[in-house]
From TrEMBL:
PANTHER family: GLUCOSE-6-PHOSPHATE 1-DEHYDROGENASE, GLUCOSE-6-PHOSPHATE 1-DEHYDROGENASE G6PD. The gene is zwf. Residues 11-190 form the Glucose-6-phosphate dehydrogenase NAD-binding domain. Belongs to the glucose-6-phosphate dehydrogenase family. The keyword NADP applies. This is Glucose-6-phosphate 1-dehydrogenase. GO terms for biological process: glucose metabolic process; pentose-phosphate shunt, oxidative branch.
């Protein structure tokens, strides 16, 4: 369904930064190439440095050349480049925002609906909103005004609330677009579609049939040159508080009355708020952390996290796992095991659901059914079922039904393209509501706090290995453990 987009101007703060270079400018270009940008739409990039329009346009060309190595359509390029302008906002200039307002007031060039994308440091989110308000650039009297806040929205519940209090002095909730770019991924949107558009799945998607759910995000990469950022953040804050809890919400939510932005968000909020608080006095049974030690990845020796950081006293986790329960009738008693890790044996983002034992057990050790939704690198749905081994005897084995969600010729859309399009359409269903952000921080904050206080050396796992055996402590039952791979046999240990 293609939605109507009003003519608008995208004001891009931090346009010279990494995110803009790698995702936003290329994403906007691809939307233009797909004919999805309104003809009049303009992009005003805002940065601290004095840069001429000519130099800025050359810089954009460099971004596109770097991204699209096989080349791109020259006609689209000409059209795209015509849309682009630059405004210098030096921090020393007290009139910088007033000047920006004057530039934007030229309605012959700039459509007057304004979307501000704050691709700047998190500490600058609130000050930029204050300054926009001070020059009356957030007033929606005649045209809409929308503000995109990049991740992270706060670093804990109090700081998220403080940021919210600051920006809502000037903005209504409907004007605020909080990013969790995972939600822009087609494979994540597919969770909801596959659940609710198939008669087959929904009836068994509950505690009567499901033994437990695993939500996994593992990487083979280490922290690279982001050691300082990572040590101030950790796996729980970086991945679980945001992307993984959103994936869980889409997996566990009830069906919205209608697939409207309000309907979807309302159900996600309900399920996030129904997750039981993690008991800090029994943390060991509910949460597990570890750090990668030196090891081998892709045949190469790699150093451990503490070595890369150059600080052996750090207790910051590169592996974080939680056991969660959702207190509602659908999920009563079903454990959700969620984990994220760097430098594991493979890179994989998926949802794995194990079903309860079947009433018919043939022999010992018959496998249970699994249903898996692959998000990355493979977008797929896989199901493991028991089937008779041909022959005279009655014996079963596990076979895997495997369907790729992606087919030859399908469009491959980057998450940011979808998010930018939704921003211009005024559809915030793929952006976070403040209640979701708060519920997510409320859940992880006590664990982050307890882990930060506990200065004992953290469990080490060799880079390139499977999940540490020690993480078994969080599992409810002896026969449950991480499914280490989406492939057949990936639950064998
Ligand atoms: N990169 C990613 O993939 C990614 C992923 C998730 C979230 N994010 C979030 O997206 C936002 C932008 O990320 P980024 O990686 O693009 O950041 P970045 O490269 O560090 O910088 C973004 C822009 O901020 C301005 N800036 C940098 N240092 C500054 C300073 N000391 N004072 C004032 N302005 C400064 C610069 O613009 P000017 O010099 O032109 O003013 C720069 O282009 C951040 O909030 C980040 O948390 C990024």
């Amino acid at each position: 369904m293609t939605k109507q987009i009003d003519p608008c101007t995208l004001v891009l703060f931090g346009a010279s930064g990494n995110l803009s270079r790698v995702k936003l400018m290329p994403g906007l270009f691809r939307l233009d190439a797909a004919g999805r940008l309104p003809a009049e739409m303009k992009i005003l990039s805002v940065g601290r440095g004095e840069v001429s329009r000519e130099a800025w346009l050359a810089d954009i060309k460099g971004m596109l050349d770097a991204k699209f190595k096989k080349g791109y359509d020259q006609q689209v390029f000409e059209r795209f480049i015509e849309r682009n302008f630059y405004h210098a906002n030096p921090p020393t200039d007290p009139n910088a925002f007033q000047r920006m307002k004057e530039t934007l007031s030229n309605d012959k060039v700039f459509p007057q609906n304004l979307a501000y994308f704050l691709s700047v440091r998190p500490s600058d989110f609130a000050p930029v909103v204050d300054q926009l308000a001070a020059v009356d650039l957030l007033n929606e009297e005649n045209y809409w005004r929308r503000v995109v806040i990049e991740k992270p929205f706060g670093t804990d519940l109090p700081s998220a609330k403080a940021l919210q209090a600051s920006i809502t002095k000037h903005l209504k909730e409907s004007q605020i677009y909080r990013i969790d770019h995972y939600l822009g991924k087609s494979a994540l949107q597919n969770i909801m579609l596959q659940r609710f558009a198939n008669t087959l799945l929904e009836p068994i998607w509950n505690k009567d049939y499901i033994d437990h759910v695993q939500i996994t995000n593992t990487e083979m990469l280490g922290v690279g040159d982001r050691t300082q950022f990572y040590d101030a953040t950790g796996a729980l804050r970086d991945m679980i508080q945001s992307h993984i809890l959103q994936t869980l919400a889409l997996t566990a939510m009830e069906m919205p009355a209608a697939l409207t932005p309000e309907g979807i968000r309302a159900e996600k909020i309900k399920v996030l708020e129904a997750i039981r608080a993690i008991p800090v006095d029994q943390l060991d049974k509910h949460a597990f952390r570890a750090q990668y030690a030196a090891g081998e990845v892709n045949g190469e020796q790699v150093p451990g996290y503490l070595e890369e950081l150059g600080d052996s006293s750090s207790v910051v986790e590169t592996y974080a796992a939680l056991k969660l329960f959702i207190d509602n009738p659908r999920w009563e008693g079903v454990p959700f095991y969620i984990r994220t890790a760097k430098r594991l044996h493979e890179a994989d983002t998926r949802i794995s659901i194990r079903f309860k034992k079947s009433p018919l057990q043939i022999g010992d050790g018959q496998d249970q059914n699994w249903l898996m939704l692959g998000i990355q690198p493979r977008e797929c749905i896989k199901m493991e079922i028991q089937s008779k081994i041909p022959g005279l005897d009655i014996n079963t084995r596990t076979i895997q039904l495997d369907a790729a969600n992606r087919q030859d010729g399908d469009e491959s859309i980057d998450a940011y393209e979808a998010l930018l399009l939704n921003l211009m359409e005024g559809d915030n269903s793929l952006y976070l509501h403040i209640s979701e952000v708060e519920a997510q921080w409320r859940l992880v904050d006590p664990v982050i706090e307890a882990w930060a206080k506990d200065r004992q050396p953290v469990h080490q796992y060799p880079a390139g290995s499977r999940d540490p055996e020690a993480s078994k402590v969080i599992f409810e039952h002896e026969d449950q453990f991480w499914r280490y791979s989406i492939e057949l046999g990936g639950d064998a240990h």
